């Protein structure tokens, strides 16, 4: 009984977590960590009032939610009891990612499949908007057993993540310095991008110039931009950075690099209209691989992490809670577009 009370007290340090949320998550944590088992009685309403000072209405609301979720059960006049040892069967997972591009859909499909049928999954999107990111975190805190989050690189993000218990958070896609010992399964953008450019340098030098489309203050990683600048300087590559592609502006003798798929599709269309042969008259490099880029125009050269593997590893962590801090390698895939 004292262990359950302590689990609830341990959540007091989490910023902005309501007493109702503390109570729900504290009991889930106690069951998940085998402090209590199926059939064990839980603290009475009066015990929680005396030990923690919570309002009777708050406790009743929390117990009602746990009963509704099938985690505990109420026995008439006897109190509340643990209904299942397998909290994972009732586990609710929140997934917060950037958007639903093809590569993120690949991550999601493998993550969802890896979790299995007995895990409830809700998905949220922040679209690299910090206000949206904050609002979503505020709305989901204390309501889920696990949180899988693609964080926004922002000075305020570390403090915002403290709304959630760190041992129940997995960071995916991007790793940021939080000062906390979070679990993560992410990709790396700086060295991996630079190495990809270096491996492609001989092919790039066949062309007059390389053009990189990069939008400042967007979801695009600044590490890729810095790697591109470093590559041009160290290998004396003629290149230019533009914010976006203008329809019809494609020129023979140039290499085009974009992170955005819609931009790539438009450039490929223009190359067809102008009769430019990929890998000879014009070159293309794209970030984040998918099956379409493998097939279209006999293949587009990409460098990309394995989002399928990222999804599988994220699911494995959620199910087994075994510590993970892993960077999924970025792989260069040479195809006919360069």
Count of DSSP helices?
13
Q: What overall form do the CA principal axes indicate?
A: elongated
Could you spell the SSE succession in H and E letters? HHHHEEEHEHEHEEHHEHEEHEHEHEE
Tally of distinct domains = 3
User: Averaging pLDDT over every residue, what do you get?
Assistant: 90
> Could you name the CATH homologous superfamily of the largest domain?
Response regulator
Structural class call reads alpha/beta
Largest sheet: 6 strands, parallel
What is the CA-CA span between the terminal residues?
Answer: 66 Å
The CATH C-level class name of the largest domain: Alpha Beta
Report the CATH architecture of the largest domain.
3-Layer(aba) Sandwich
What is the helical fraction, as a range of percent? Answer: 25-40%
**Residues in β-strands, percent:** 15-25%
Pfam family, one: GntR
InterPro entries: Peripla_BP_I (IPR028082), Tscrpt_reg_HTH_GntR (IPR000524), WH-like_DNA-bd_sf (IPR036388), WH_DNA-bd_sf (IPR036390)
GO molecular function, one term: DNA-binding transcription factor activity
Protein name: GntR family transcriptional regulator
